[in-house]
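Supplementary Note 3. Input sequence used for the single-chain structure prediction.
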Amino acid sequence: MSTSTSNRAYTIQSAGENPGTWGDPVLNSNFQTIDTNLGGVTTVALSSSNVTLTSTQYANGTIRLTGTLTATVQVIFPAVQGWWTIDNQTTGNFAALLNITGSPGQLIAVEQGGATDIFLDGTNVKFRNLPPVGSYLDLCDAITPLWIQFCTVNPYLLCDGSTFSAVTYPYLNTKLGGTTLPDLRGRARFYLDGGTGRITTAGSGIDGATRLSAGGAQNVTLVTANLPAYTPTGTVSAPTITSKARGMTTTTGSVNANVDPSNATVGDFTNMATNSVPTFTGTAQGGSSTAVNKMPPAQISGITLIRSA
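The predicted structure, written as discrete structure tokens, is reproduced below.
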């Protein structure tokens, strides 16, 4: 008696069964099933209720999801193994989750507007062909998309400097050398210096030889040491000083030989034997100590996530 394979239900003919026949009932039906598995496309309409796939639907290699979601729903596979392509053409601000019937394992959601490869191991639903763990994903979103948030194990984590579980994300923990995410909020990414001396602690305050080191600021306040060396040129004219002759002191009445006593005024007997140089007090001009903007032309695009699982 014929039996079937456990995953895609191909017919297994027992020894001696159907002697003298070639095409039917085994080989031709199997070829048709294989063709459906590899190239078949079925459409599943979604709205607000969970949908359990029939054997005819999940026999197709590509499952296209359509409809306007008014709630988060599940698309439920039987407990089978294999790989599929999910073409999620649904709309609405909700997620379509992929699950296995009766399974406590992982489930995932897939992004709207594109095709995603998945595989089932009989217990868990997982992604296929995502970029390597530790790679970055730049999005024009303001928050982590719903399809990522609804996965049992998030395939990407927001680079906000927070911590994560080394148990849940062991490969990311190994990649980063710890459980702290990069903090890329309001920051640009640069590559390792690689011995070029282009990004150094002495030059920029950032250690370009150390992965995940950070620093920098959008402006800087200049001090005198930041200004180029400058030697002023020009001439200084001596001041012209006019004074009355003061040649007699109040105590001795002696005449100072350096002045003409004939210009002395009665009662003006202040001792002026030594002339003093005037001093001037002023206000600093030409600066305000305002910080200098270092930001190049830029546009704020969205958020950056890192592949985590």
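The first strand starts at residue 3 and ends at 4. The first helix runs from residue 23 to 39.
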